[in-house]
Amino acid sequence: MDPRGAIVLAAYRPDEELFRRQLRSLQAQTVTSWECIVSVDGDREPVETLVRDATGDDPRFHVIGDGSRRGFYGNFERGLRAVPADAAWVALCDQDDRWDADKLAVLLPHLSDVSMVSGQARITTYPEESVSGRTERIDADAATIVLSNQFTGSLCVFDREILATALPFPHVHTRVATHDHWLAVVAGAYRGTKVTDRIVQDYVQHSANVYGDPSALRSSGVAASVRNVLSQARRYEGSASPAAVARMTFWTYVGWRQLMVDTLRLRTGAVDPRLDALFGTGRRHRALTRFLRLAVQTQTVPRRFALEYRASWWAGAVTAGRRRARAAASAQSGVAPS
User: Fold this and answer.
1) Can you name the residues that pair with 5 across neighbouring β-strands?
2) What is the rounded distance in angstroms from the CA atom of residue 94 to the CA atom of residue 84?
């Protein structure tokens, strides 16, 4: 008998056709021992109705939510908090994709070797229903994953045990925080991560995506990066002043990664010294420079990313970013900052 698991599906005003299609693809899984926790951001009642209409009397589907808006990051966190204690594994699910029937059967065996595994996906368009490509996630070491996340939550399955460290999520007042990046970093500190080349689902691209396929972002230009930082600074820092832009630049690259590494250290009592030297409170500029140069040479990140990351480092230096990130990690880990 397959070990029982949990599928956490984050929902927010889903497209009815895509949502029904996704729910039915879950029901079609060849692995059947699971429950699906549908965590609703905002109004719960319409989503409950859709789930009931699509799944009938299937008792494996449960809808949770209190009507509040938490954003996709907080909504996944709420869903993961509801995972039952007897679940051996957890799969994350987006509301508008479509799983192949053997997705769980393909991915679950890899959890005997690692704490998190990812498959690949067909990139499809909606409503055209055309295939525009496929994802190209790569296997990478823990340091590379901190720098450039290779894990999209909807493609992953992981051991429930990592939630003991991953919850609660580290929070920062910016959209840069992503649940899959944080979970992959935590999994790397347990038994490691793995990416397979098997395609296990459709990854549906449409105008309402919170984030599109990350590979598409690699080709965006400097102007798009500047517009994004200015927009985020206005939203989360209250202005686009030089100081606000510097703070947002820090959090977008270096700050978020320091927060993850420092939170991991505080919650587990230890962290890989290489991660600390590259990203944590103990980071060293010379080590980072060598690491970024190698990442560009191996095409792990584009040259523009490396330049922006260095800019983020110096933005943190002029805004006391290191101290603020360390204090944020301490506050969220129940440990007084030293």
Assistant:
1) 34, 89
2) 20
